[in-house]
Amino acid sequence: MKAFIFNSGVGSRLGDLTKDKPKALVELKSGETILGRQLRILRSQGIKEIVISTGYKEEMIKEYCLKEFPELHFTFVFNPDYATTNSIYSMYLAENKFQDDFLIMHGDLVFDEGIVEKLLEEKHRDLVCINTEIPKPPKDFKGRIKKEKLQKIAVDIFEKDDYALQPLYKLSFATISQWMLRIKEMIGKGIVDVYAENALNEALLDLDVRCVDYKYNFVEEIDTLEDYERVSNDVRLFEFLNQKVYHGDYLIKLIEIIKKHNFKRPFLVYSSATFKNTEFYNYMKNLALTPYNSYSSNPKYEEIIPGLELFKRNKCDVIVAIGGGSAIDVAKAIKLFSGLNPNINYLEQKLVYVNTPLIAIPTTAGTGSETTRYSVIYADGEKYSLTHDCIFPNIAVIDPTFLRTLPRYHRCSSLLDALCQAIESFWSKGSIEKTRLLSARAIHLFRYTYKHYLEGHPFVDDRIMKVSYLAGQAINITATTAPHAMSYKLTSLTGIAHGHAVSVTLPYVYKYMLEIAKKSEDKELKQTFVNLAKIFETCETKLFEILINIFNEFELEKPTVTEEQLIELVNDVNEERLQNNPVLLDKEAIEEIYRSALIVKK
Q1: What would the CATH number be for the domain defined by 410-602?
Q2: Could you report the per-residue pLDDT of 553-578, keeping only the tens digit for each?
Q3: Torsion sign across C-alpha atoms 557, 483, 428, 32
Q4: Which CATH code for domain 243-405?
Q5: From CA 196, how far away is CA 184, in angstroms rounded?
Q6: What is the average pLDDT across 330-343?
Q7: Which of 155, 172, 358, 571 is found 20 to 30 A from 282 (Cα to Cα)?
Q8: Could you read off the pLDDT of 276-312 as tens digits, one per residue?
Q9: Which stretches does DSSP call E strand in 222-324?
Q10: What is the CATH number that goes with domain 2-223?
């Protein structure tokens, strides 16, 4: 199977976005280009042969493809008359390239990996993507379907058998050949400024093109600036909520993933316990594996650099992170920095999208790092939060058996981190209905499982991993708030675990905000705390005590700091995370919360 992408047009309806670049290279809100996203997904599904029609600024497309995807094999077909012709002529020029079955797509399509997987898995050789649930779009393609067969593709059809259609096709060589015959007939008559689909319509009655419904997938077209805004935002949310997740024995799943995607040179960031698995080591040594674990529990900038150099020197084609939040954070930082200039401090550069696949396998239940776009590292004693969509793991593998060997302190601190993330996400300024639902599910699951987990019962391990994953999904969209903002310096000063540090202040942050909300005229803020309390099956005035009681059950000590350290804590709160808090916390409020939450030595 090969792929053909129409990319000859100017894309003038996108205004300034295409003033200096072709539409294919317009960056979505994630930082990834439209074309880069298409190629990344095709590569993930094993499609390595790509034919691209070019026209407007063709050299930019060529340079981009060869630089960003050197492992793919490209053929470029230039349409010199791109300004006066349409896709029918671009396809006509590529006639001698269609010697196989193809996925054929328009260059302005944004789609998810699942729809490509669905097309490839369907046994029928000729397929088109339609949506049976959304309204018929007034200005875009519809497909007329009768007796399960495609009869016509057009914009101006609105009958009961017509459905929204996106120009993403899987077609056999025989069908493409029939399509090409009709294209040549129309070109011979001088018809060059119409869609290639006009010629396909002439052949459909003699073909057997069936349909795949994309109602549960994401397939959208970007024609206008309004499309760009909507699609960019919607696809990010879709990706965050529809991550590829495998459940079960991590070794079996990892081997399955590596074989499926034909990875040859994995870069493994791991915790020390990982290599205790002899079977895992024996399998991995058969690959050109590059292992790395020279980092501390709070990974430092200078610990990232050797791993990054190793990753680049060995030309690794996938990053696998197995461990707690630190291992996954290191892997994310290495991926992110690999796209930057090595001669300049990476923390001072503008971040760019990197398309290297990232697989995250958590060995703890807490950070939710396997499903977030965040990485935390330290430089010169200061915490840096790296945020970029490209470090959201492409694949997560959830194996609850890892939890059975965790020391009690780590079981406690990591699970408290998950609970705090769920709570913070619920009240965050960035919360939306979907994230509040995720938070509520995480909190409910936590409440009915944490006692068994603390007692060491393995039958709840899978549910505890689910708590962490749901909280991670929510916080990935909303970002954390004051308790996290106040935790980072506390961790570096006292040496306690991150989840421990967050849980220390959260009840007191809640108590402070509730007092403000009572005096406020902000009805939405008041309702947020009412709704949060309902999840805990109580009222908002009693929730503080319930949180304190829950955290006390984990038997983690209150940290002790000096007056000098307290001043340092107050002056070093993470401002970025503080901005997400629904109630403004000034330094006086922050000091009040710290004094309530900590033991302060005179």
Answers
A1: 1.20.1090.10
A2: 999 999 999 999 999 999 988 787 78
A3: negative
A4: 3.40.50.1970
A5: 11
A6: 97
A7: 358
A8: 666 666 766 677 889 999 998 889 999 999 999 999 9
A9: 244-247, 266-270, 290-292, 318-323
A10: 3.90.550.10
